[in-house]
Each structure stands twice: as C-alpha cells, then as structure tokens.
Amino acid sequence: MKQTQLTGKTIVISGGSSGIGLALVKRLQQDNTVIVLGRDKAKLAQLETRGLVTFSLNIAEKTERQAFFHWLDEHYPNFDVLINNAGWSRPHQLAARQPDQTDEESCEDYELELRHNLEAHIGMTLNALPRLLKQPGALIINVTTGLVYNPKAANPFYCAAKAGLHSFTQSLREQLRTQDLQVVEVLPPLVDTPFHQNGLPATVRAISPQDVAQAILKGLQHNQHEIRVGLSKLAYLLGRIKPSLGFHLVNRQ
Fold first, then answer.
1. Among 12, 27, 107, 133, whose CB has the most other CB atoms within 10 angstroms?
2. 120-132 helix and 156-175 helix, angle to the nearest 10 degrees
3. What is the CB-side half-sphere exposure of residue 154 using CA atoms within 13 A?
4. Is 110 a catalytic residue?
5. Which strands, in side-by-side order, build the sheet including 81-84?
6. How do residues 199-217 score in pLDDT, each as one tens digit?
7. Is 149 in contact with 246 (CB distance < 8 Å)?
8. DSSP letters along 12-80, please?
C-alpha cells in the first residue's frame, strides 16, 4: 500500500484558524490549496494575508453547509481532502439543573455540543462524499479525542458527541473499504489550547498543537487509519485491558 502524501491536494479544514487546525494549515499550505472554514472573520482575514483561502460559515447550520459546497463546486471542483477538525465544549454539572428550568433551557447546552461536535461533521461528510468519490486518492480525516475510550465526566456532552463521531467514522470506513477514498480518525490527548485548558488544573500537562500536527502527518505516511497521539495510545490500551482504571485516571482530578 502506497503512503498517503498530502501534496498537490485541495484541502478543506474546519476549525483551521487556531489550535490543531492552524498547526495543520501551516504544515499543509506550502504544497496544497488549503481552504479554512471558521466563524471568526478577524482570524480568517489574517489567514488570507498569508495566501490562504477562507470561507466564513457555521458548519452546524445545514443551509450554510449547502451554500459552502455550492461555492466549492464553482471555485474548487477538484476538492479531494476533508478534515473535520472543529470542536466546542465546556464543563457541565448534570445535577445542577434547577427545578424551575424549562425543558428548552436544560436542553440548549447539550444540543449545541451535539450539533457542533457530531451532527455538523456528519453533515459535512455527507455533503462531501459524492464529490470525493469522483477524485482519485481522496481522503477524509475526522478529529475526535482519546476520551472516546475513557470519557471525562465533567464534559459529558462533548465526550458523547465525540464517541458518536468515532463510531460513525468506523462505519464510514467499512462502507468505503472498496473505494479509492481513505477514512482516517485522529485521536489527540489533551492539547495546549484555550479550548482544552478550560477549567483544568495547572498541574495537568498538555501536548502542543504542533506536535499533534506532526503526529498526524507521520501517521498518514504510515497508512494508519486510527492515529492515536500521545497519551491517547495509553487510553486505548486501558480501554481494552482495564477500562475502570482508565476511567479513574481521566477523572481523578
């Protein structure tokens, strides 16, 4: 099996204006056409000054996704790589719901996280599939988390959504096994970004986005379908051998 080389590709990446996404963009920009998706127009404008293509949208909105792919058909019909990287989360105390809260109020948080971390990526994938299947050597990369093996109780909605994306990715890969379209999952550990540092003790160590990007490209060169980065490798082993210990270690802080 030949190595996966990300050169000469037209790459669409969500969440590419910061964190892991930005680290990937910087590595991929030189040899590819990279289209960065996001909602922060100021950050997107900065990327445009570096010669990157950007598109402002909320990937959790169906109509905005459809508008983007219509634009993509017109401007970049040879699009052949989709990287579903965007994510959003915050801690939740499930027992803190007030008796007088309406069902709508109590559902708002989990619906937002499920939409942004699961449904949006499934929607992006379904829109991209008929286009990618026409391109030789196409690729889908879904970024989940090592927490799919041992969830963090403080982030129940995020972990549930990423576990769902992990399952979807496995099913998608199996369905496409005879097609010229690779499906790769990246499972990072805790990453040193404002997103992951939210509410964490100062003693918790995190890996840099640059190290994650390097691990992704190395994993692709070795044709890994599940690229487990850093402590996610340990989380995987514990999830198989001693799940209760893995869960304890993740939630002991």
1. 12
2. 20
3. 12
4. no
5. 53-56, 33-38, 10-14, 81-84, 138-143, 181-187, 226-228
6. 444 445 679 999 999 999 9
7. yes
8. EEETTTSHHHHHHHHHHGGGSEEEEEES-HHHHHHHHTTT-EEEE--TT-HHHHHHHHHHHHHH-TT--
Domain regions of the chain by residue span: 10-251
Tell me the backbone φ, ψ of residue 84, rounded to 5 degrees.
-90, 95
Q: Has this prediction a pTM greater than 0.85?
A: yes
Question: Which among 237, 145, 132, 227 has a CA at the least distance from the CA of 191?
Answer: 145
Place of tokens 């199996």: 174
Residue type for 95, please? A
Give the range among 33-37, 182-186, 226-230, 240-244 with minimum mean pLDDT. 240-244
Beta carbons within 8 Å of 10's beta carbon, 6+ residues apart: 32, 33, 35, 76, 78, 79, 80, 81
Q: Catalytic residue among 76, 110, 149, 158, which?
A: 158
Q: Give the integer Cα–Cα distance in Å for 148 and 240.
A: 12
Q: Which of 45, 48, 55 is nearest to 12 (CA)?
A: 55
At 178, list the tokens: 């005879």
Please name the residue that has the structure tokens 């340990």.
234
- Give the fold, CATH level 3, of 10-251: Rossmann fold (3.40.50)
